[in-house]
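Incident log, support desk, overnight shift.

02:14 A customer reports that sequence design results differ from what the structure should imply. Their input is reproduced verbatim below. On-call engineer (initials T.W.) acknowledged and began investigating.
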């Protein structure tokens, strides 16, 4: 029997067309979990679970390094402003973007691609500045995205 090989969590490629500066600096991505609600029929004795519930997804979380010119951070910041709190009606846009997460094998060959449909940022973390640091630790930020659905393709 052949020994299985296991997924290496550092072998991945993440793409988001709407934010190329952010994508280039991605440090980590969490493949979202999902849950299926289960409708139940009550009986005098037990509740009987039924199939056909509603599927829901956890949020897509991405951690990226902040570039010195802040372009990686500002891409997400500006996108969120356009989605949620523009100063003028002309600034408002319903901007969603598809994105992909490709998992790679130990030889860096693509094995599975997850396609996320209609993603949009719903939060971006703070950028921390600290003069007490002994060594340079480049700033990283977490961004969270909601999306309509995702599907995978085995490559």
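02:41 Re-run completed on a clean worker. Output:
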């Amino acid at each position: 029997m052949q020994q299985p090989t296991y997924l290496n969590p550092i072998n991945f490629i993440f793409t988001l067309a709407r934010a190329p500066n952010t994508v280039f600096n991605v440090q980590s991505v969490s493949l979202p979990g999902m849950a299926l609600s289960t409708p139940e029929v009550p009986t005098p004795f037990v509740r009987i679970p039924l199939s056909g519930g509603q599927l829901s997804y956890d949020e897509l979380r991405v951690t990226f390094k902040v570039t010195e010119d802040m372009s990686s951070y500002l891409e997400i910041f500006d996108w969120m402003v356009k989605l949620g709190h523009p100063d003028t009606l002309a600034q408002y846009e319903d901007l969603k973007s598809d994105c992909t997460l490709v998992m790679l094998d130990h030889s860096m060959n693509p094995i599975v691609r997850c396609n996320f449909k209609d993603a949009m940022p719903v939060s971006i973390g703070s950028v921390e500045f600290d003069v007490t640091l002994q060594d340079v630790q480049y700033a990283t930020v977490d961004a969270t995205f909601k999306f309509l659905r995702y599907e995978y393709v085995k490559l």
